[in-house]
TrEMBL record, chains A, B:
It holds the Pfam family Histidinol_dh. Signal peptide: none annotated. Substrate binds at S236, Q258, H261, H327, D360, E414, H419. Pathway: Amino-acid biosynthesis; L-histidine biosynthesis; L-histidine from 5-phospho-alpha-D-ribose 1-diphosphate: step 9/9. It catalyses: L-histidinol + 2 NAD(+) + H2O = L-histidine + 2 NADH + 3 H(+). Zn(2+) binds at Q258, H261, D360, H419. It comes from Iocasia fonsfrigidae. NAD(+) binds at Y128, Q190, N213. Keywords: Amino-acid biosynthesis, Histidine biosynthesis, Metal-binding, NAD, Oxidoreductase, Zinc. This is Histidinol dehydrogenase. GO terms for molecular function: histidinol dehydrogenase activity; NAD binding; zinc ion binding.
């Protein structure tokens, strides 16, 4: 039984090119209009519109959106101590890693002219956490902890309620353990609009982070510019580059851990070993049977799974860079010799014990990662997402004097004599500054 | 004669709130559809579509889009040595400043588990430089130099041609002096689409930077996700916070240097000195008369200029943060005592000799800055815009073992037993790895 589609590179170059071209985010979508209508409704009608869409899409009529202390207490009563213990370890590791990303203000002198860069945290951030039946406490940790590590004072979580109007207790406990008390029962495009513009009871934020479904993603794109957003998330992906030293059972398990997310999830193995490819395929068939989410994983593996045979690992790394995977596992004999060749990847898992799920929960680095080939230009969610910089310029008179002719020259050439005057006036006598 | 509208804070709080709420980027615009049509046309029909829109909007039928060596030579013959000398000083200062923004890879160990962050430059970047009659060599410097400083190998410039099919010679010379040979004669939404998707002769880029008109801005928003973009630029702004120590003539000149850009440009003075406010107003009337771009500046000052009287400088800094200006001048007796209060500003000009035009050309920091209040969450263009990060995770067996129960617990709780299996399989005997 052949589970994964097999191609060879460079032989099947054309087909691989087509696959690569088909990934990524479309400029517009037939759902864009609906999403824009929802956003404008929330902008114009505030909370009332949010409640209307919550009734329509989440199937629950709510009176208020803020999660109460009572609800937090209920949540703590429902989750086990084991969960809280694992959650806390996750929070510690994620916090430690992200604190290392923090940066310093700096300034420099050139003669007596000072320039520099000031780092400040954003004031208020909203984290979107998917909801419904599943629990996503790890999404809370991965979006909230970097924001708090960066120094953001106000972090709020939004998550869609279930049909009883509740947010998953694991999500709530994760929020409180991470350090967030302000949680709203809203989801979809209406949640994004409420965060961007604010409503009667929800104060607008400066940035919205966290992945959601396509409506959430389109809404994030729409409000980009009003607020900042982290990225436009697409289906999750793993790409494994392995030579004959790879363990077929580990590789199959890691591919399936991706495939079980979503029928659209993409799992790819690139290898120079035909034997490994065959063994992985067999293992996939075996392991698929035992999965709870067998149907999702099977569809994903059959429709979006791919094994690419390459002549050597060097050709493999070229393909990795073209693919620019969200998750990348490097399973070769000398991974640190290959690592410098990898230009485009969200998170790089090195060696046989760095299974991708390790990065989803506990390792420390973020699991919110660029998808759809955007690792060419985008990064894992990190503390830089929660700060902004200001340049500073402090010139003394003699410093300005030393380059005033150059400024005047360039300004006049650009047709901006007001710019030139602003410099000239500082070196000409006049009634005020004598 | 009263030139600038005057308000008091907190007295006119309501009016100031309305002004602040009216800034920023709208989610949709009546021009969005036209822009999306152009983009899709370029996506589907490539160069032919680009040439069609160039004929329609720029009024010139071109055979090819790439600027030739001949055209570069002509440009060098047209510009003076003085220009090249000033340009070179600008390039040196901008390069020196931006090189200080560069960052290092890092890694850390927790027991024997390694995690870290790798920095890589983007592969290919496109810089949009406005064109038409005016010359914008400084836009070339400010977009190209940070990209090259960050290590980007391929930087291309696009700029709309004039009716003779030429790009401004100052722009061309600036491109070559900055280090760019690949310049295309394209502008508007069609230029953004060509950069995002590539055409028969233009290779697509990973990121598009540089400000343009509203069509360029809407197009950048549309292709965001396909490629990265720097920001959505709006009208330019300066806000000056001054006490009685401020020089009214310098302040008026700096306000006018903003106002001459565009009737929509915004120039604001916040002061606790009524006397200073009056003197600035008089100076504005005087200085306006002498400007070449008098009409633009007058419209801008009358319609979008504003003096706000505050009780004290502390109240003034609160307003600065709410305004989040693109350019901010801090003209008070002890500027470095006030500086820590300033959370939101693109570039901060400190002291009487740090006139805003200094930052436009020569000081070193970037002049591509967040407008419309987006300094709440956005930064000056900087080398971080031209790199991306990858996380690395390298766990040994014992490191994974120490947290495997936590991963399994969290994965199963999220309903992802495939994730749990990927960890379990590494600690269970099986046919392959014994």
């Amino acid at each position: 039984m052949i589970v994964m589609r097999k191609l060879s590179y460079p032989r099947d170059r054309g087909e691989i090119n087509n696959l690569l071209a088909g990934r990524g985010f479309a400029v517009a979508d037939e759902r864009t209009e609906l999403v824009n209508d929802i956003i404008n409704d929330v902008l114009n009608n505030g909370e009332q519109a949010v409640l209307k869409y919550t009734a329509r899409f989440d199937g629950i009529e709510l009176d208020g959106l803020l999660v109460s202390d009572e609800e937090f207490k209920d949540a703590y009563n429902k989750v086990g101590d084991d969960f809280i213990s694992s959650l806390k370890k996750s929070i510690v590791n994620v916090r430690e890693f992200h604190r290392k990303q923090l940066r310093q203000n700096w300034f420099t002198y050139k003669n007596s002219a000072m320039t520099g860069q000031i780092i400040k945290p954003l004031a208020r951030v909203g984290a979107y956490v998917p909801g419904g039946r599943a629990a996503y406490p790890s999404s809370v940790v991965m979006t909230v902890i970097p924001a708090l590590a960066a120094g953001v004072k106000e972090v709020v979580v939004v998550s869609p309620p279930d049909k009883e109007g509740r947010i998953n207790p694991y999500t709530l406990v994760a929020a409180r353990e991470a350090g967030v008390d302000e949680v709203y029962k809203i989801g979809g495009a209406q949640a994004i609009a409420a965060l961007a513009y604010g409503t009667e009871t929800i104060k607008g934020v400066d940035k919205i982070v966290g992945p959601g479904n396509i409506y959430v993603t389109l809404a994030k794109k729409a409000v980009f510019g009003v607020v900042d957003i982290d990225m436009l998330a697409g289906p999750s992906e793993v790409l494994i580059l392995a030579d004959s030293s790879g363990h077929p059972d580990y590789i199959a398990a890691d591919l399936l851990s991706q495939a079980e997310h979503d029928p659209l999830a993409i799992s790819v193995l690139i290898t120079d070993s035909e034997l490994l490819a065959e063994k992985v395929d067999k293992e996939l068939a075996l392991q698929l049977k035992g999965l709870n989410r067998k149907e999702i994983a099977t569809t994903s593996i059959n429709e979006n799974g791919l094994i690419i045979l390459v002549d050597d690992i060097k050709a493999g790394s070229e393909l990795v860079n073209r693919f620019a995977p969200e998750h990348f596992e490097l399973l070769v004999k000398e991974p640190f010799a290959i690592l410098p060749e990898i230009d485009n990847a969200g998170a790089i898992f090195i060696g046989e014990y760095s299974s991708e799920p390790l990065g989803d929960y506990l390792a420390g680095p973020n699991h919110v990662l660029p998808t759809g080939g955007t690792a060419r230009f985008a990064s894992p969610l990190n503390t830089d997402d929660f700060i902004k910089k200001s340049s500073i310029i402090y010139y003394q008179k003699k410093d300005l004097a030393s380059i005033s002719d150059d400024i005047i020259q360039l300004a006049e050439l650009e047709g901006l004599d007001g710019h030139a005057n602003a410099v000239k006036i500082r070196f000409e006598g006049n009634e005020f500054n004598d």
